[in-house]
Amino acid sequence: MAQPQGPAGDEVIIDVRGLKNSFGDQVVHENLDLQVRRGEILGVVGGSGTGKSVLMRSIIGLQVPVAGEITVFGEPTIDADPNEATDVRKRWGVLFQGGALFSTLTVAENVQVPLREFYPNLDQALLDEIASYKVVMTGLPAEAGPKFPAELSGGMKKRAGLARALALDPELLFLDEPTAGLDPIGAAAFDELTRSLQKTLGLTVFLITHDLDTLYAICDRVAVLADKKVVAVGTIDELLKLDQPWIQEYFNGPRGRAAQAGKGDIQSERRVDLVEAQAIGGTDDDNRRRPATQAEAD
Ligand SMILES: Nc1ncnc2c1ncn2[C@@H]1O[C@H](COP(=O)(O)OP(=O)(O)OP(=O)(O)O)[C@@H](O)[C@H]1O
Description:
This protein is α/β, with parallel strands linked by helices. Helix content is 41%, strand content 21%. The termini are far apart. The relative contact order is 0.14. The site of adenosine-5'-triphosphate has 10 residues, from α1. This is Phospholipid/cholesterol/gamma-HCH transport system ATP-binding protein. GO terms for molecular function: ATP binding; ATP hydrolysis activity.
């Protein structure tokens, strides 16, 4: 199927049109449109409960909307033919909020879950080899493979979840609040990891976040959810020019201004943070904490 084209002529990987979601009387989305372009990191922001996670679940077929159309790689994901849905699902990876690792499986076994699901005939030696590669790729030490999730720090769990999301060599990555719960150093290191994997692997990334530093550091464009729909999509500079109350409050509030003022410093600090994080084995479990922004320092 021909891929739709975005306004700038870029290939549209995710195309959401007229989406409506509701739970009982509560309407979460109404006439929501969104296009995600190949190769971008799209940040998705909005107040708590505006339906960011429900949007992601709708796109990946876990939430059946009341109305609307969604295509991913040009294929419909709502009421899709099961075989075609499987073909499309192989092309994306998902890091759910909190990591969603299976607690009774080791990190390596968690990474192997999607491989076993989609390629049941792979032999164990190959599964082990792929899992080791993905574990190291996400900055975890090789020794993390045989560990259980309960033995990992919060940051390591996120990396393990990311390793599982990358198991099938996806073209498209969904990240639901990947830096939530991480200290600033861990969050910065995870941002750098996301950016470097996105560049190296040519990924398109749909990234739900509340983290202003993440938006400034790695997102190419930002989509804003409010009033049950996407009220704006653009670079942060473009969004700042809009007279939309939530956008102004979010980006021009004290934390937004601090993130904006320090964005160059934050990015260069974040490169140092990554080196530091790698030096300590990719873990975020040290208790060093320093303010990411002047607002936190205050
Ligand atoms: N399975 C469900 N059943 C009933 N209501 C739901 C369900 N899933 C989500 N909701 C409701 O839909 C709304 C949007 O939820 P969602 O988790 O998408 O918000 P969010 O924008 O991701 O919020 P947050 O930033 O706090 O994570 C919320 O009011 C939530 O209670």
